[in-house]
Every structure is written in structure tokens, then in C-alpha cells.
Amino acid sequence: MVTPEGVLEGFDVILDGERIESIIPSGSVDTKEVNVMDADGGWVMPGLIDIHADFIENMAAPRPTSILDMGMAFREAERILAVQGITTMFHSISFISKLHAFSSPIRAPELTRKLLTEISDSHSRKHLIHHRFHARFELDSVDRIEEIQQYIREGKIHLLSIMDHTPGQGQYRDMNVYRDTMKKWKNLDDESVERLVTAVQNRAMLGLEEVTTLTDLAHEYGIAVASHDDDTIEKLDVVQAFGSDISEFPITLEVAREARRRGMYSVAGAPNVLLGGSHSGNLSAAEAVDLGVVDVLCSDYYPASLLRSVFKLHHDLEKPLHEMVNLVTINPARAVKIGQETGSLEPGKCADILVVRDAGDENGFHPTVSDVLVSGHHVLGTSYRSGQGGSR
User: Fold this and answer.
1) CA 154: distance to chain centroid?
2) Which residue of 103, 143, 209, 294 sits 20 to 30 Å from the alpha carbon of 8, by its own alpha carbon?
3) CATH number of the structural domain spanning residue 95
4) What is the percent of the chain where pLDDT is above 70?
5) C-alpha distance from residue 257 to each of 86, 169, 288, 293, 330 (Å)
6) Helix H or strand E encompassing 234
7) In this structure, is residue 247 part of a structural domain?
8) 243 lies in a domain?
9) How many domains would you assign to the chain?
10) Has this prediction a pTM greater than 0.85?
11) How far apart are CA 231 and CA 49, in angstroms?
């Protein structure tokens, strides 16, 4: 049993409806009086909390020209997320101008509105996991300020991040990386890429005063604010000026360390752990975890990476398992201000619980979620068949 302070053996979690009632030594309760789920041979841990993932974009638009029904995409996405052990998902959609290099049909205002509706409606209909909305607001979204302010006032946004993907700084401070990315993303030739760079660098942007007005509104409604791709100490000065609580994807170890020193939560991508580094050539998440300068891992674009990265870090870095589990449970919960409600196995908290087992074989260890409880409801149970040989 994985708690924030360590791993316990020989204990039971006692549930009362949707809440954890107590954690007591095994055998303390007459099993004839209660319903029992036997997790023998597995790890019992909190449900995973993913505060940054654009997976829903991939489900709704698997190809740039193929926009599927948002309701269907939402329903199918949550089934996949439950299998990965994610019990609270902050679906991330970018508010972005049409002039921006990363604009796409799925990020259009009408589709954002459909996703917000799906999330809001999910609370009063059949659903598997907890759904929340992470609004990623690009500084060039000058025509969408009123739109996002209205969503905040309506209680439909649960995390706000301020982004600037202008080439020459942040994630794309290396212009060659930006050019190569655009060639692959938009299938452009060199001349077209240069025209794009010029257009993006000269587009209209929000100023600090306008951003501060927006983030002040978010804080008024109890919403955490994140900055994105902080690449210098001076950038931290700026993002703290508009009240950032979280530093998402700091570009260097120096910035990640300083963000934590200032009391900000530092977030890295779990795919970075599995890939052995950043796809943009920036900070190594595993190294940052090893040095203790990262508090939270998010799936970014690959939900399966959360659970797998926990055990990889535990094995490769010889870090205590509970500390690695905290990176995807109680730490993100605290970062987005829901730590009193969920994120750990503690009495009084929401019973969001996983049973994780090793489904590996002679080819290696493979952590797999066998059971998922959300608010005390058993929403998923899976069991691998033993290999029998042949084609059966």
C-alpha cells in the first residue's frame, strides 16, 4: 500500500461509500461483514492525477483533416484513461490565434466549447473518472480574452496556463529546432518556414497588464496559474509578476531549481522520462527528478507514460517508490488545489484507488492497472490470461 510517507504491508483500506474511512492492520475487520477486494500480490495506490494532457485532441482529431464527434471522442478517451490508472484528468486545450504556427481545427472556439460542455455534463451522467479543464492560453490570443474570462466566471476552468511559443525563446529558443519542427508539423519547405517565422514573431501579443488581469481573475476563483517553458531566471521574474503558481516544463535545471526555491511547483513530462530526454533538446526529466527539482510529472500527450515512468524512475534511479508515486498523485493534487480532496490514501479523502500488478514475463517488468476505483466505485477490472502457446 503506497502512502505519501512510504509503502505499507499487511494493511487494509476501509471504505465508507465514496470516502476512505481508515487504514488498519489486516485482519482487524470481519470479512463477512464487508465487501472485499483482494489486492494480494499488487500495489494499492492512489489514482493518478494528470494536470496537463492534450490526449483529447488526438482522440477528437486523429488526423488534421479528420474531426470526429467530440462527445464520442470524450467517452472513448475516458475509457483509455481509466485503463492507464488516471482517475482525474485535466484535459488541455490551447486558446490560440489563427495566425499561430500551432493553430489547428481542433483548437477552434466552437470545439473548445464542446469539450467544456462534455466535461460539465459528465458530472451529472454516467462517467468513469473525474474530468477537469486545463486552459492553455497563448499570448497571441488577443481576440479570446472575453471568452476565457467568461468560462472562468462560469466555473468551467480548473487550471490556467500562460504560454508563449514564439520562436527564439522558451521551448524553441533554438531556432533550428523550431524550423525542423515546422517542416514536419506543416510539411513546409525552407522558404515557407522562414515566412512563417517572420509572421509569428511579428503577430500581436498580450501585454503584462492584460495577462495579470486574467490571472488575477483566475486566482479570485481559486484556480491555479501555470507558466510554460520558463527558460531563464528573468522569465521567472516575469511569470511571478502575474502570479504563476506552477512552472510547467522549465527548460533548464537551473530554472527548475530556482522555481522550486521560489515556492512554485515544477512540472516535467513523463514521456521525457521514457524517451530519455526532451524531444526539443531541453531539460531531462529523469535527471531533474534525480536532483529533486521536479515535483510533478504529467502525461503531456501519452497517458500510458505516467504509471510506467513511476516504476522506471524507481528502478533506474533507485528512488523510493512512494516518492515517485507522489509525483503523479498528491503533488499534482496540491499544485492544482485539490490536495485536501484526493491524491493520497488517507482517511476522509475521496476513494480514488488503483491496484497495480506486474503483467511482465521473461521479457521484463510491466506495471499494469488491474482495478480502478473512483469515488469508491469499481469502474474497471482487468486480468491478463496466462500464455498457452499457439494462437489461442
Assistant:
1) 23
2) 294
3) 3.20.20.140
4) 86
5) 28, 19, 9, 5, 20
6) helix 233-241
7) yes
8) yes
9) 1
10) yes
11) 26
